[in-house]
Specification:
The chain is α/β, with parallel strands linked by helices. It has helices at residues 14-30, 42-54, 119-134, and strands spanning 3-8, 35-38, 63-65, 80-83, 93-96, 110-115, 139-143.
Length: 144
C-alpha cells in the first residue's frame, strides 16, 4: 500500500514550496529512488525545471520535463521526471503538486504532498488528505 507523506510549510511563499520539492527530490535520488513530480500546471513544471538546476550551487539533480504524450522507456536515465501526465512504470516516488489526487498514485511506493499556507493549495491539500484518509492509506504529517 502506498505511504502518503504530507509536508506542510507555515508560509504562503511559493518559492519556499518549490525549494522544498527540490530538496526532497535530491534526498530521494540519493536513496536511488526514481521520482515523478506531477503537476497540472505546465508553468509550475517550468519553474521547477529551472530551480532544480540552481537551488543549491553544489547540487545536481538529473531531471527532465516530459512532453505531452511522451512514453517513458527503460533507457530514461534522469532520476526525476516532471510531468502533467501518467508516469512510466519505473518511478517509485510521486511528488504530487496537482490539485486533485492523481488516479495513478497507488502505483508508487510513496506519495509526497507539499502544502503551504496559500489558501488554494491548503484547501486542495486538505481535500486530498481526506481522500487518502477515507481510503485507509497510511499518512505521515511533517511540519516544516
Amino acid at each position: 500500500m502506498t505511504r502518503i507523506d504530507f509536508y506542510v510549510l507555515s508560509t504562503a511563499d511559493s518559492t519556499a514550496r518549490l525549494e522544498l520539492i527540490c530538496k526532497l527530490s535530491e534526498k530521494a535520488i540519493a536513496r536511488s529512488e526514481k521520482v515523478l513530480i506531477h503537476s497540472d500546471s505546465e508553468m509550475e513544471l517550468q519553474q521547477l525545471d529551472e530551480l532544480l538546476w540552481s537551488f543549491r550551487p553544489v547540487s545536481f539533480v538529473p531531471h527532465k520535463i516530459l512532453p505531452t504524450g511522451y512514453v517513458t522507456s527503460g533507457s530514461d536515465n534522469e532520476a526525476v521526471h516532471l510531468s502533467s501526465e501518467n508516469p512510466g512504470a519505473d518511478r517509485t516516488l510521486l511528488i504530487n503538486l496537482a490539485k486533485q489526487v492523481p488516479p495513478f498514485f497507488s502505483r508508487f511506493e510513496r506519495t509526497l504532498e507539499v502544502i503551504n499556507d496559500e489558501p488554494d493549495i491548503r484547501a486542495s491539500g486538505r481535500d486530498r488528505y481526506r481522500y487518502y484518509q477515507q481510503r485507509g492509506y497510511p499518512l505521515q504529517h511533517h511540519k516544516m
